[in-house]
Amino acid sequence: MTDRHPLQLEARIDEPLSRWLWLVKWFLALPHVFVLVFLWIAYLGVTLAAFFVRLFTGRYPRGMFNFNVGVLRWSWRVSAYAFGPLSTDRYPPFTLADVPDYPARLQMAYPETRGRRGLPLIGWWLLGIPQFVIAGLLVGGWGAHASVAGVMVLVAMVLLAAGRGYHRGLFDLIMGFHRWGLRTTAYASLLTDVYPPFRLDQGGAEPTGHEPPAMPLGSATA
């Protein structure tokens, strides 16, 4: 098992799930979407500013880092509720901060060591183009239904509506797609120098081996 990726993405199936609420979650989440549009505009601006800082210093300013991770965290909670895995009916909170008891979490530690700077930084980013293409196909934007993950979620929700519950295998696969996509987003945003691995780390919890324990989200339901 490889070392833990700097971005830790976790979720659980928060049962009991409504058989039909998923049909209107996108509407219920519109207040979040409105706020996130502006947050993502700010995210792009902060990323651009951080690029120039990193270009000359190799460091990502901590305040900028914390803000962008917060935007990713907020987006992940909304995705888990309304657009992506649809694994919880609990309405997401309006905050950039981590919410330990929410059934979808994203964590990322600030890199204490200096990263690439100067022209190598640009070349390193360009190496991510294959990952950007693959992630777009797997998850699109916020798990759009045109993506592979979106199709899998639709299948899972049809089974849920038919009274079959949320199929564990489908959930694990969907989480693998989103984990790949968000690792790639973090790389593209210069939040980490770790190149996204070409693999699906499936399941609600981050893969473990000799790594430290995963974030405590409670026991996942089968």
Question: What can be said about this structure in brief?
Answer:
The protein is mostly helical and 222 residues long. It contains seven helices and two strands; from the N terminus they run βαααβαααα. The chain is globular and about 55 Å long.
Question: What topology does this entry show?
Answer:
Layout: E1 7-11, H1 25-28, H2 30-57, H3 62-83, E2 104-108, H4 119-126, H5 129-139, H6 148-161, H7 168-188
Order of helices and strands: EHHHEHHHH
Q: Given the C-alpha coordinates, what overall shape results?
A: globular
How many domains? The number is 1
Rg for CA atoms: 17 Å
Give the spatial strand order of the biggest sheet.
1-2
Q: Give the helix tally.
A: 7
> What profile does the largest beta sheet have?
2 strands, antiparallel
Uncertain spans: 210-222
Helix content: 40-55%
SS strand fraction: under 5%
Taking all residues together, what is the mean pLDDT? 88
Account of the protein in words:
The protein is mostly helical and 222 residues long. The chain has one domain (7-188). Helix content is 49%, strand content 5%. It has seven helices and two strands; from the N terminus they run E-H-H-H-E-H-H-H-H. It has helices at residues 25-28, 30-57, 62-83, 119-126, 129-139, 148-161, 168-188; strands at residues 7-11, 104-108. Strands 1-2 form a two-stranded antiparallel ribbon. Helix 2 (30-57) packs antiparallel against helix 3 (62-83), helix 5 (129-139) runs antiparallel to helix 7 and helix 6 (148-161) packs antiparallel against helix 7.
